[in-house]
Design a protein that fits this description.
Length: 263
């Protein structure tokens, strides 16, 4: 059964508090996506308070897009508190293959057992040890190219892995789901991938199975993007229309977004 309708309803009914330690580029859109979907965003990253906020949050999203020593400390503290409290948390390893600093930070964060890792194909390939899959924050590979890498990372770190792409891949290492929908303009919206990580975190707070939570969140975003594209003139207007659709999901085609992949 497609978890997208259940995730959509649960977000609005429970309004989870989601702490986002995210980058400068994505703060605005991530907060608006969460609010429109029914969640409550808290953009708290400073190490003086990040662990305290994680103790209050229903879920935590850690995005390394614009790392600095202070933010990295805040990320480690928040993720550590989430792990200690069994609070679901999502790692978005932005451009992890680009620099040694990012690789070291992500290695530290992976030790804190994220519930879900969400990235593009290049990032997931980098986590699996492949090279040449990305250029900065952009992926040079398609999501299906990272299927085997996603399964490997999920099994190694005992988490769910989401690979965003034309067809999203969601796997826990044993079960794999595909999420369909969206629009080709969506990758042109800066920070939409980061925002999807925040939405996955929110879903993990309201749905027990992180595989279904992640797939349902990605299904909701795909449905909103598909619908928004019918009125948008390009990626800029799609950004606005997508948030509008998330705020009023009754007209979205939510069923049929998530499809099981035979083992």
């Amino acid at each position: 059964m497609d978890p997208t309708p259940a995730v959509t309803t649960a977000l609005r009914e429970r309004s989870p508090l989601v702490q986002c330690l995210t980058n400068y580029v994505s703060m605005d859109l991530a907060a608006n996506v969460l609010s429109a979907a029914g969640a409550s965003p808290a953009m708290v990253h400073d190490p003086h308070e990040s662990a305290d906020m994680a103790a209050l949050a229903d879920a935590v999203c850690v995005n390394i897009g614009t790392p600095s020593p202070s933010w990295a400390d805040g990320m480690r503290l928040a993720a550590g508190r989430a792990q200690a409290d069994a609070t679901p948390w999502v790692l978005d390893p932005v451009a992890v293959g680009a620099t040694a600093y990012r690789r070291e930070l992500v290695a530290d964060l992976l030790q804190l057992r994220p519930t879900v890792v969400r990235g593009n194909a290049g990032e997931v390939l980098a986590l699996a040890g492949a090279v040449g899959g990305s250029r900065g924050v952009d992926s040079l590979a398609a999501s299906h190219d990272a299927h085997d890498a996603a399964v490997l990372v999920a099994r190694e770190h005992r988490c769910v892995v989401v690979v965003s792409g034309e067809v999203d891949v969601v796997t826990d290492g044993d079960r794999t789901l595909h999420v369909v929908g969206g629009h080709p303009w969506m990758p042109m919206i800066t920070a939409l991938g980061c925002s999807s990580s925040a939405l996955v975190a929110a879903a993990c707070a309201v749905v027990e199975d992180p595989l279904e939570a992640a797939a349902g969140a990605m299904g909701l975003l795909a449905a909103a993007g598909t619908s928004a594209a019918t009125v948008a003139q390009g990626p800029a207007s799609l950004r606005v229309a997508l948030v509008d659709r998330l705020a009023d999901p009754d007209g979205l085609e939510l069923v049929g977004r998530v499809r099981p992949v035979p083992a």
